[in-house]
Amino acid sequence: MALRMWASSTANALKISCASKPYLSLSRCFSTVLDGLKYAESHEWVKHEGSVATIGITDHAQDHLGEVVFVELPEPGGSVSKGKGFGAVESVKATSDVNSPISGEIVEVNSKLSEAPGLINSSPYEEGWMIKVKPSSSSELESLMGSKEYTKFCEEEDASH
Amino acid sequence: MNLMRFKGLPILKQLHIEEQLLRTSSENWCIINDGTNDPTIVMGVSGKPAELLEIESVLRDQVPVIRRFTGGGTVIVDPGTIFVTFICNKEAVPDLQPYPRPIMSWSSSLYSKVFQGIGDFHLRENDYVFGNHKFGGNAQSITKTKWIHHTSFLWDFDVRNMAYLKLPKRAPAYRSARGHLDFICRLKDYMSRSTFIDKTVEAARTQFLLRSFELGTIENCSETEFRPSTRFLTNEELEAAAVAGQ
Known about the structure:
The structure holds 2 protein chains of 2 kinds.
Chain A: E1 3-6, H1 7-14, E2 25-28, E3 38-39, E4 44-49, E5 52-57, H2 59-65, E6 68-72, E7 79-80, E8 85-91, E9 94-99, E10 104-109, H3 112-115, H4 119-122, E11 131-135, H5 138-142, H6 147-159
Chain B: E1 2-7, H1 11-24, E2 29-34, E3 40-43, H2 49-52, H3 55-60, E4 65-67, E5 75-77, E6 81-89, H4 100-114, E7 121-124, E8 127-130, E9 133-142, E10 146-154, H5 159-162, H6 180-183, H7 193-205, E11 211-212, H8 215-221, E12 231-232, H9 235-244
Parallel strand pairs in B: 1-2, 1-11, 3-4
Antiparallel strand pairs in B: 2-6, 3-5, 4-12, 6-10, 7-8, 8-9, 9-10
Helix pairs in contact in B: 4-7
């Protein structure tokens, strides 16, 4: 799980002043990143096995979103487009779009999430999967980040805020 | 940042404008609606009517019920409610991560300027409170490139309207199972409407270059066929929810 420290306590520890920006959330990417998956900059993961790709949100994303209380998912048979939203998660007081890293046809949706949305928090890469898709383009998968690249991306993103 | 000010705009219209701007505009917006017209119940995107509302009373008295596009809880709004909304690109606030808690924290720092020295204001869990009494409720929606944070402020409220709302199952810990009237307070006991709105605009000006915007300009320029998801629930839906217990 990512370590998150609010700006004021971090300021005390590091002896820096950031009183002018109390909303800074300083965190370092201690979130789990799995090898073998591909990752989007909007913090979704893809696991490609045979003709099917499974999609969910990453540990980094679920940690920053907080407790997920509701998941909005599409119907099987629909389609997704790379970079476009296909659903949403509700956490705290917010709905947050979930975007598809690849284009394709939705072949299965995780129905467990309607009764147990918290699976996204407790098991983001396993039981918290969201949709399964038949990819329409292999080049889209190749253009996504690998685990090392995504880890670095998270670190840089957290460090810049 | 474009500033739009309304008085008594119907809440459904306000939410439709907000949802359209979030989804189709590349600019930053601040919307202030000084009271809405008719008492209306507004639930969050995942709200279950049977859990949150006294449906029998709602149907009997024909109180409109809206399901909005943002997360969060249920409110009943009326002419005593003041609405303030910020719709921002992800780069609009430097160093702000576009996640619920940082956005909530940013908003509370803005309102801290509004309520400086007044009434022990702070953000408590996700509510704006004086002491431990809530007077402002928040909700958000976050997309790939933008976020919206909107607040309904209880400048005043009608005690009778609170009877339409059940005690929510999901409530902040600091509520401590208090009933509505022990939990909330009125902003009018601390500040006039005009002072609150003026100070909010002033606080926004410390971070953004504000320019006034007329609603008609948006409507004339709109070339999108955007369909908002925010809508009224029908009587049939409410009756079905009551029967199904959802």
